[in-house]
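--- STAGE predict ---
source: upstream dedup step, 1 unique chain passed
mode: sequence only
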Amino acid sequence: MMHAAKDSIDLGIICGDIHASLHFYHDLLGLAKAGVNEASTGTMHRLRFGTSDVKLIDPTHRPGAGPVGIDQQLGFRYLTFVVTNLDEVIQRLEAEHIPFTRPKTVIRPGTTIAMVKDPDGNIVEFVERG
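--- STAGE serialize ---
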């Protein structure tokens, strides 16, 4: 059985265009820069959200893109950010002409979501509860 060293998990994303990904996750979503270091797969840019790190990797060898969409293949399919300011996030993304794969939707009383694609086509979900 594992014993958690922190109350969150980290996620690595192999990026097709590191500048577009940094713009999306840091400039638009506001994830804080937590460091840059060389990794076995390329240069890793760590961005922090709460206690979680989103590790954007500029790969040494760029693989081809896989299928896009939640229901297009097995495995990890989307990343969720639980926020307290969903309307503000939506307005910021709309101002940048980021298309929504799922517009703001109440999925059950007290829970609202919206989804977009990041620059590599990964689905990013925003959830607000309250």
